[in-house]
Amino acid sequence: MNPVKMTVAQKHHLFFIGFFGFCVDCFVQGQKNNTLIFTKENTIRNCTCPDDIGDNDCDYSLANLICNCKTVLPNSIDKTYYNNLTIWFTDTTMLGILLNFTAVQNLKLSLCGSVPLSTEYLTIWGLRRLQIKRDHNGQLQQQSLTIFSSYDNNMQDKLKVQCKGRQIITYISVLYTSLFNSYSPLKSYSVENISNVTDHFPSLPYSDNLFTTNNRRYVITFIY
């Protein structure tokens, strides 16, 4: 694997996220909405946007016009929690800086550059829904994937039983960026009720340092 390197600040952030975990619907709704992050000429722009920006992927001029945008440094990107996050990116190195070890419910990734891309393995906390857009025959084509839904009765029952027993459920998604190199169906598979991530997935980046908390269960989803 070729994981994006983790800084000391990211390790502290991960401890913060891992400490709380995710129990049923414990994300605080409305904390942040419709956030767009994009890179242009080595500049990172962090924007708060209206809903109607959604169908104008990679239109940097429009984003700067109708969104409230500011230029930010890579180490100042807030990774604590997003409800709706859109990232326009051109390379996986920068995507890793923006996305790796971020807590986000609804994520949209739009590739605004050319392929092939280098392969990275990005870790996302609490991901529920993913949309990606990539070039196919000269046009951006969208695909969607639901990891889990708060309205899934079976999942709700499982989570309620686990939470009642004071076991914290943590959802972790691992995104293979090589999926942008070809236009094929978006796929995923999940492994539930994991108590020791290192034992199950010894090659998962940083598993020996991050996923060792007692009284916790993990659901690991691989997206490819």
Give a brief rundown of this model:
With 224 residues, this protein is of the alpha/beta class. It contains 6 helices and 11 strands. Strand 1 and strand 2 form a beta hairpin.
Give the secondary structure arrangement, pairings included:
Blueprint: H1 8-20, E1 35-40, E2 43-48, H2 60-66, E3 68-72, E4 82-89, H3 92-99, E5 102-111, E6 121-125, E7 129-136, E8 139-146, H4 153-164, E9 168-176, E10 188-194, H5 197-200, H6 207-210, E11 216-223
Parallel strand pairs: 1-4, 4-5, 5-6, 5-7, 9-11
Antiparallel strand pairs: 1-2, 2-3, 6-9, 7-8, 10-11
Kindly report the average pLDDT value: 79
- Order of H and E elements: HEEHEEHEEEEHEEHHE
Distance between the termini: 14 Å
Biggest beta sheet summary: 11 strands, mixed
Query: Segments where pLDDT lies below 50 for 5+ residues?
Result: 22-31
Structural class: alpha/beta
The proportion of residues forming helix, as a percent range, comes to: 10-25%
Q: Note the total helix count.
A: 6
Tally of DSSP β-strands: 11
Radius of gyration: 17 Å
The portion of residues forming beta strands comes to 35-45%
Overall spatial form: globular
